């Protein structure tokens, strides 16, 4: 599944697209988005916001199911032996990140379905009696809803952690050998999810809250990227050269322009002005955050494949 390509290209966009294809970066991106949505949705359930009929906790699980399924399909397309994917579920390897991730992804589906069935929309309730019974039971058990929120946040964090650990567990690539890569992917996923919900939220309070939260996530993401680079630059010589791929090498232009500039700095400035009521809220900033998060995955995956322990060019 993880084929290694060592051919180098001179063009800025070629290394990003040609080294590992699009399937894995898209899967990591959608997994991060779903992780962030589950954390947000679970938090709203825990805080009792489900009492608001326009709470985003009612439609985020549906979107999460769709995005997770698309991400799983992208991962499936990347598999070399697609007919044998079922073997992942015949065992559980404690030391394998892939084994942990496979089981977490399967367990997430019933959790999202449990969240989704809380939908207050009359059309769903009237057509499916079991949904009505499930809602009536849940609404009579506020503590159960809080626990569902905690479980949703727990597994959301699990997906977010897994998307970073999946790469960092592959020690053959020095760029991925970082203790903060999982944290970078988790915060980036939270930022992308907060930006997305900021745009689609029907509740004004939630829209304002998530805009402010996304500003915090973007600032934290900048610090984590700095720690990620510093950690590589102060480690082995090979890891320092791997960091140079992002700072000065083949991926520098894409990294500084699309990830740092367009994906973090510009939307952060726009959203800081918006939450301080200097300008009106605009979907442009959240869209830039989401695009930046996607390109971040492409760059980390491709640059990691470019980096080698045995080559110092």
Could you give the topology of this structure?
Elements: H1 14-18, H2 23-46, H3 60-78, H4 97-116, H5 122-127, H6 129-139, H7 142-168, H8 181-200, H9 204-233, H10 237-247, H11 252-275, H12 284-306
Task: Compose a concise summary of this entry.
The protein is an all-alpha fold and 313 residues long. It is 70% helix and 0% strand.
Which keywords apply here?
single chain, 313 residues, Formate dehydrogenase/DMSO reductase fold, globular, disordered N terminus
Tell me what the structure shows:
It is a single chain. With 313 residues, this protein is mainly alpha-helical. The chain has a single domain (14-306), classed as Formate dehydrogenase/DMSO reductase fold, CATH 1.20.1630. 70% of the residues lie in helices and 0% in strands. The chain is built from twelve helices and no strands. α9 packs antiparallel against α11 (252-275). The protein is globular and about 60 Å long. Mean pLDDT is 85; it is low at 1-19.
């Amino acid at each position: 599944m993880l084929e290694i390509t060592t051919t180098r290209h001179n063009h800025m966009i070629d290394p990003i697209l040609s080294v590992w294809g699009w399937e894995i970066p898209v899967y990591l991106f959608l997994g991060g988005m779903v992780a962030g949505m589950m954390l947000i949705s679970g938090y709203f359930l825990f805080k009792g916001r489900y009492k608001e009929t326009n709470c985003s906790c009612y439609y985020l699980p549906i979107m999460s199911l769709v995005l997770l399924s698309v991400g799983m399909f992208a991962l499936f397309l990347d598999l070399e032996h697609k007919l044998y994917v079922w073997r992942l579920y015949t065992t559980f390897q404690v030391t394998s990140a892939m084994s942990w991730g496979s089981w977490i992804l399967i367990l997430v589906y019933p959790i999202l379905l449990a969240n989704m069935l809380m939908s207050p929309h009359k059309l769903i309730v009237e057509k499916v009696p079991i949904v009505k019974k499930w809602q009536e039971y849940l609404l009579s058990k506020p503590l159960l809803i809080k626990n569902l929120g905690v479980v949703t946040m727990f597994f959301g964090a699990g997906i977010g952690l897994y998307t970073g650990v999946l790469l960092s567990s592959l020690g053959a690539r020095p760029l991925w050998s970082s203790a903060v890569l999982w944290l970078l992917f988790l915060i980036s996923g939270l930022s992308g999810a907060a930006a997305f919900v900021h745009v689609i939220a029907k509740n004004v309070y939630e829209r304002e809250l998530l805009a402010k939260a996304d500003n915090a996530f973007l600032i934290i993401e900048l610090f984590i990227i700095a720690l990620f680079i510093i950690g590589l630059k102060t480690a082995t010589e090979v890891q320092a050269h791997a960091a140079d791929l992002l700072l000065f090498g083949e991926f520098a232009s894409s990294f500084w322009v699309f990830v740092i500039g367009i994906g973090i700095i510009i939307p952060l400035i726009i959203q800081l002005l918006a939450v301080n009521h200097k300008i009106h809220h605009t979907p442009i900033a959240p869209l830039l955050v989401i695009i930046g998060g996607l390109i971040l995955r492409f760059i980390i995956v491709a640059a990691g494949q470019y980096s080698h322990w045995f080559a110092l060019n």
